[in-house]
């Protein structure tokens, strides 16, 4: 019988979470148990440490439908460090039901490099994303109630920017009309839904460093504008207390484990193509309190998640990654070299060679931040020796550290070579630097990202973005970092432009201030904040047995 992620997870021996916590030095008093295998951590109960652990960031080349296995490598690398007798923890994002039911089918690693309990984590887990949905929609209800109850804040219903959310891909909800049915049913207006992980509340929860900070950030969120075009915030509505109450349990990071018993802290889940793509700051710092090495990941390629990790998460958290891993695969590089998805099984070293330009750009991007990355060549069945040799030889010629990685099949043992290379990088001095300053103009910050990270030529602002730019400067919001909302499939804003395109211009069609999160979301191309389901959703293959075991999660 062929192994699947679900079958491997189902047959794995899972330890009581109290045992995992004890091994990590977390007392029972600091835990809030969710059954035998999950717990929330009360970070205020953790003992102080003199030195926080080092951070290893795992990123990837531009993703393709072939899959790169970034989360799998992240988990496997943590287990590999454990095999090297290092004190280690892994910190990951929580899966969103949208991609789980849509395309991915699961997001907890794969093979023998997974986090457990896999079913729970991929579905409702400890309810964090549901709490964010409730808080977001409670705020939406309070806004509409305010309009209905005489609107003393003079909010212009046409300029409400706060949307409702749902943690499922549902394109039919992108644009809706609410308040129909007469005077007793509210004020009619246009509205819309985002996916929950695109909510500013998700970003706020992931960037707050305390409950008090969470409340203050929630208060700063802009929900719309008055008839006089002045901003209206959650503080104006006096709603921050209620929102904090709804989120107080969700704010605590979650403790689970890998198949090999490595502590795993999973918390927060913003997408990297429409948000900042990193697990929560409090989760990463909690992991740094309990381990000497923390392996974490950022969504999609280095042009998205890693760039935002540096410019947003590192800046807000006042720490830098100590090492960076870039995950690459033969099949993804073949696609970047021009091979169609249905032709990937055929060996094609020439296509791999052509696709190497994508890996080269991501290596260049990380080097610009002052870090020499390590490449994890994630091996898949069917990769030919010639194809693998092509990549290894390129790395040798470019003096780029690289390790063949087989964690899906072998677990931590398959990542030991990678862990040894990363360990060497952790011991070397760093010259970390950000690519732009917060006080740079919005145009300069955008141009820096496009030219240095994407390898493009310039930016172009739509008429709407130019008007918003004037407003942002008027309100003094132009000193915030940039959070680009861009396709993950290309370095450009055109999804089908693979490899390493050059000379392109990125069009900024809209700029949305997120004062609570502390950044400006810049929408490019046709990126959507509420995805749609594919032609054949993963949900169509999901079921449950009579005794309650999941079917179809992968």
TrEMBL record:
SUPFAM superfamilies: P-loop containing nucleoside triphosphate hydrolases (SSF52540). Its EC number is 6.3.4.3. One of its GO terms (biological process) is tetrahydrofolate interconversion. It catalyses: (6S)-5,6,7,8-tetrahydrofolate + formate + ATP = (6R)-10-formyltetrahydrofolate + ADP + phosphate. Pathway: One-carbon metabolism; tetrahydrofolate interconversion. It comes from the Bacteria. Keywords: ATP-binding, Ligase, Nucleotide-binding, One-carbon metabolism. InterPro entries: Formate_THF_ligase, Formate_THF_ligase_CS, P-loop_NTPase. It is an enzyme of class 6 (ligase). One of its GO terms (molecular function) is ATP binding. ATP binds at residues 64-71. Pfam families: FTHFS (PF01268). Gene3D superfamilies: Domain 2, N(10)-formyltetrahydrofolate synthetase, Formyltetrahydrofolate synthetase, domain 3, P-loop containing nucleotide triphosphate hydrolases. Belongs to the formate--tetrahydrofolate ligase family. This is Formate--tetrahydrofolate ligase.
């Amino acid at each position: 019988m062929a192994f699947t992620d679900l079958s491997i997870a189902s047959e794995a021996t899972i330890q009581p979470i109290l045992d995992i916590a004890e091994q990590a030095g977390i007392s029972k008093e600091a835990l809030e148990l969710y059954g035998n295998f999950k717990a929330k951590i009360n970070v205020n109960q953790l003992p102080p440490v003199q030195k926080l652990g080092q951070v290893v960031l795992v990123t990837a080349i531009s993703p393709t439908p072939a899959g790169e296995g970034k989360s799998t490598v992240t988990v496997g690398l943590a287990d590999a460090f454990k095999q090297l007798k290092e004190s280690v923890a892994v910190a990951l994002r929580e899966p969103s039901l949208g991609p789980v039911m849509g395309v991915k089918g699961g997001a907890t690693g794969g093979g023998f490099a997974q986090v457990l309990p896999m079913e729970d984590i991929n579905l409702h887990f400890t309810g964090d994303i549901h709490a964010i949905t409730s808080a977001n929609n409670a705020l939406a209800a309070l806004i509409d109630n305010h309009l209905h109850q005489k609107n003393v804040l003079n909010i212009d219903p046409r300029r409400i920017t706060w949307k409702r959310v749902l943690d499922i891909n549902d394109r039919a909800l992108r644009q809706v009309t609410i308040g129909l049915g007469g005077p007793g049913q509210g004020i009619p207006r246009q509205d819309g839904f985002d996916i929950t992980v695109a909510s500013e509340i998700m970003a706020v929860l992931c960037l707050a460093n305390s409950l008090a900070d969470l409340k203050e950030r929630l208060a700063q969120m802009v929900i719309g504008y008055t008839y006089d075009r002045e901003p209206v915030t959650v503080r104006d509505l006096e709603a921050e207390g209620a929102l904090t109450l709804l989120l107080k349990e969700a704010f605590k990071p979650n403790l689970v484990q890998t198949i090999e018993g490595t502590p795993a802290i999973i918390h927060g889940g913003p997408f990297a193509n429409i948000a900042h793509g990193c697990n929560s700051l409090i989760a990463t710092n909690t992991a740094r309190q309990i381990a000497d090495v923390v392996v974490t990941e950022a969504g999609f390629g280095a042009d998205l998640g890693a760039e935002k990790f540096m410019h947003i998460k590192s800046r807000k958290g006042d720490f830098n990654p100590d090492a960076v891993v870039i995950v690459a695969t033969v099949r993804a590089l073949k696609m970047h070299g021009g091979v169609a998805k249905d032709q990937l099984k055929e060996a094609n070293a020439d296509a791999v060679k052509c696709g190497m330009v994508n890996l080269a750009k991501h290596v260049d991007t990380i080097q610009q931040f002052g870090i020499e990355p390590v490449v994890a060549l994630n091996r898949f069945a069917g990769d030919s020796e010639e194809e693998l040799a092509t990549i290894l030889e390129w790395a040798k010629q470019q003096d780029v550290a690289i390790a063949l990685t087989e964690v899906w099949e072998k677990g931590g043992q398959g990542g030991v070579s990678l862990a040894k290379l990363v360990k060497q990088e952790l011991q070397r001095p760093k010259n970390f630097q950000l690519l732009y300053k917060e006080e740079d103009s919005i145009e300069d910050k955008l141009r820096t990202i496009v030219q240095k990270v994407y390898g493009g030529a310039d930016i172009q602002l739509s008429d709407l973005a130019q008007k918003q730019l004037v407003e942002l400067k008027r309100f003094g919001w132009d000193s915030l970092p940039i959070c680009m909302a861009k396709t993950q499939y290309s370095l450009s804003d055109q999804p089908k432009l693979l490899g390493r395109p050059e000379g392109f211009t990125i069009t900024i069609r809209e700029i949305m201030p997120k004062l609570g999160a502390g950044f400006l979301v810049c929408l490019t191309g046709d990126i959507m904040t509420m995805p749609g389901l594919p032609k054949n959703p993963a949900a169509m293959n999901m079921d449950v047995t009579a005794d309650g075991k999941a079917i179809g999660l992968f």
